[in-house]
Write a structure and sequence with these properties.
By secondary structure, this protein is an all-beta fold. The protein contains no helices and 16 strands. A hairpin with a 4-residue loop joins strand 13 and strand 14. It is elongated and about 65 Å long.
């Protein structure tokens, strides 16, 4: 067994890796508490942190649950586009718009659910849509939930047919003064081998 011990009672014990280019990366045990973390010393950032209770944080050193990810998440089905995706967009006020994703479908049919949650102060708006698309046809959109405008602020979502072989999702911010910080959660099912997802 290899024992790594801190130089002082309250210090961290760990290993430091330093490449020829000067980049540094540490694997450390935090002094004074149980746990383990992977620290990017070059960019002063925690990459992964395991706390004393076994909670794992990626991009955070204070995980709240068994797995806590600070950032976008992709969970794909065996290398195919079908899966769970979470990402964020900040869209400017006064008609600002952004393409969110395009789903291409080479054959067969697909269905997906999209949840939109705006977390900007004074802009509490949430929407959930279910979209079905068969190859060679236009998308069918069902709105499951829409909280409507909040303090006069709202955003709209469109699904555009792409040559009858795909669907492009876009968001327009209808607020005249407040930028919209929107978290998008996409659950993509359908025919995995036929589907390609492009995030914009």
């Amino acid at each position: 067994m290899l024992l790594l011990e801190a130089e002082s009672g309250a210090g961290d014990a760990g290993i430091e890796f330093k490449g020829a280019g000067g980049n540094q990366f540490n694997i450390q045990q935090p002094g004074g508490s149980a746990g383990l973390f992977f620290y990017d010393r070059t960019n002063s950032a925690y990459r992964m942190y395991i706390d004393a209770t076994g909670n794992v944080g990626i991009g955070t050193n204070s995980p709240d649950e068994k797995l806590h990810v600070m950032g976008n998440i992709v969970n794909e089905a065996n290398g195919h586009a079908a899966g769970l995706y979470t990402f964020q967009k900040t869209i400017a006020a006064n008609g600002g718009s952004a393409d969110i994703f395009t789903i291409s479908n080479t054959h067969g049919a697909q269905t997906f659910t999209v949840m939109f949650n705006c977390s900007t102060s004074g802009y509490s708006v949430a929407k959930t849509d279910v979209v079905a698309h068969a190859f060679g046809q236009t998308p069918i959109v069902n709105i499951l939930a829409d909280t409507g405008p909040f303090s006069g602020n709202n955003f709209s979502v469109t699904y555009t047919d792409v040559s009858s072989t795909g669907v492009k999702c876009a968001i327009t911010n209808n607020s005249t003064t407040v930028a919209a910080d929107i978290t998008i959660t996409l659950v993509l099912a359908g025919s995995p081998t036929a589907v390609t997802l492009t995030k914009h």
